[in-house]
Design goal:
By secondary structure, this protein is mainly alpha-helical. The protein is built from eleven helices and five strands. The strands form two sheets. It has a three-stranded antiparallel beta sheet. It has a two-stranded antiparallel ribbon with strand order 1-2. Strand 1 and strand 2 form a beta hairpin. Helix 6 crosses helix 7, helix 6 runs parallel beside helix 8 and helix 9 packs across helix 11. The chain is elongated. It starts with 19 loop residues before the first helix and ends with a helix.
Length: 260
């Protein structure tokens, strides 16, 4: 399988990196994962694969990794338990999904599409009238804004997850990813979400339940930027003589009632 693979340096601080065989198996999964949606024929069965997925067979994988099938499968299950992989199996093969593939491996489709669109516009600009050129320019600008926004959110998610996993919260899962993505969509700055995680570290409460309580409190105050949050904290600190973030008794009571 040809092509490049993107690896984040934060992986060095993950428990996966601490075990050389576990790290080897995880790298194997990353290198086997598909970069685009396609169909694969397995025996007589056509398997639909999405980006981040691949068909796993123990015997073939054992040969490719130079590990015994039982040992290899044990490490695969460990990665599943840690939240790095998802596995769907039948009696013949398994389809393995690398969790959060879309976050760590940006799709180059937008780049290729933009390059093709730019080329077409260059070819046509000598024959198009001025109005058509203005229309093309507006469409291109709209695409660039959309692509820039998608890239910014992808980079923001990557930074947030790096802080999350690097500060003892654990390995990020799909529910946590949905929280982060939802907060960004609601207008919270990346720096604000990271600040909430840092507060959890400071308060020695590294749980998403606590972080959700902080974010919900800011949402009620309609403070979604780090500058506004800091301003409120400074104001509260001057009033109460306390620089640490504290939930009010009412907020803590509401937090304790949450099911997660």
């Amino acid at each position: 399988m040809a092509g490049w693979l993107k690896i984040h340096r934060q992986l060095m601080h993950s428990p996966v990196f601490e075990n050389e065989k576990l790290f080897k198996v995880f790298m194997y999964c990353l290198m086997k994962a598909s970069h685009k949606e396609h169909e694969q024929l397995v025996g007589r069965q056509v398997v639909q694969l999405k980006p981040g997925q691949f068909v796993f067979g123990r015997k073939k994988a054992s040969i490719e990794t130079n590990m015994s099938p039982s040992t290899l499968w044990g490490y695969v299950l460990t990665l599943k338990k840690m939240g790095n992989l998802d596995i769907k199996s039948n009696n013949k093969f398994s389809v393995i999904t690398v969790v959060n593939w879309a976050i760590y491996q940006q799709d180059d489709k937008n780049f290729d599409s933009k390059r093709t669109t730019d080329g077409q516009q260059m070819d046509n600009k000598w024959t198009a009238d001025e109005q058509q050129m203005d229309t093309n320019k507006n469409v291109k600008n709209g695409e660039n804004v959309k692509n820039d926004k998608n890239e910014q959110q992808t980079n923001a998610m990557r930074d947030i997850i790096s802080i999350y996993e690097g500060n003892g919260y654990g390995t990020v899962g799909s529910l946590v990813t949905e929280d982060f993505s939802g907060w960004l969509d609601q207008g919270f700055e990346k720096e604000a979400i990271i600040h909430a995680l840092e507060i959890g570290v400071t308060r020695n409460n590294r749980t998403m339940k606590y972080v959700r309580g902080i974010i919900n409190n800011w949402k009620k105050q309609n403070t979604k930027s780090l500058s506004d949050i800091k301003a409120n904290e400074n104001q509260r600190s001057q009033k109460n003589g306390n620089s640490n973030y504290e939930l009010s008794p009412e907020q803590q009571s509401q937090l304790d009632k949450l099911p997660f």
